[in-house]
Design a protein that fits this description.
single chain; 2 domains; 10% strand; elongated
């Protein structure tokens, strides 16, 4: 009989976790908040898989798909923008933690004109929309983000 997941405390990080699908999911440092997060996640198990995937993992899966299904210039453009985005937000940022300000901070480069900023946001939005269409995610966290003209 399989064990039922339950929160546990890790002294090294002073945080609460639980294990599911071979992954340890951080629930936070506060006990009450951790248990509330645990119960919310267990009530909707699909959320666990989608919200706890990193943007880096998702971007690699998306780039593999683009390389196989789109022309080389499209792949190169997507790769360039997504590498820049991942370098800015970090490889550990989870999809569930992505907010519009992450994208805004990334595109606020002096060297980028409005067209480049529009393209950059479009590539990230397309990756997230593709992930929703393919079933990797439940929702796109930046779906309503406005792009420069």
């Amino acid at each position: 009989m399989a064990r039922r997941p339950k929160p546990f405390f890790r002294k090294q990080t002073q945080s609460w976790y639980f294990s599911t699908g071979g992954k340890q999911i951080n629930l936070g440092k506060d006990r009450e908040t951790a248990f509330a997060n645990f119960h919310r996640m267990m009530a909707d198990p699909v959320t666990i898989a989608s919200d706890n995937q990193t943007l880096y993992e998702l971007s690699q899966t998306y780039l593999d798909w683009v390389e196989a299904n789109r022309k080389p210039p499209t792949y190169e453009r997507c790769k360039r923008y997504l590498e820049s985005f991942i370098n800015k937000v970090g490889r550990q940022l989870k999809v569930g933690g992505l907010k519009q300000f992450h994208v805004t901070n990334w595109i606020d480069k002096d060297a980028w004109n409005s067209t480049s900023r529009n393209d950059a946001i479009g590539v990230v939005q397309r990756m997230l929309n593709w992930a929703v269409e393919e079933g990797y995610l439940i929702r796109n966290p930046i779906a309503g983000m406005k792009k420069p003209k």
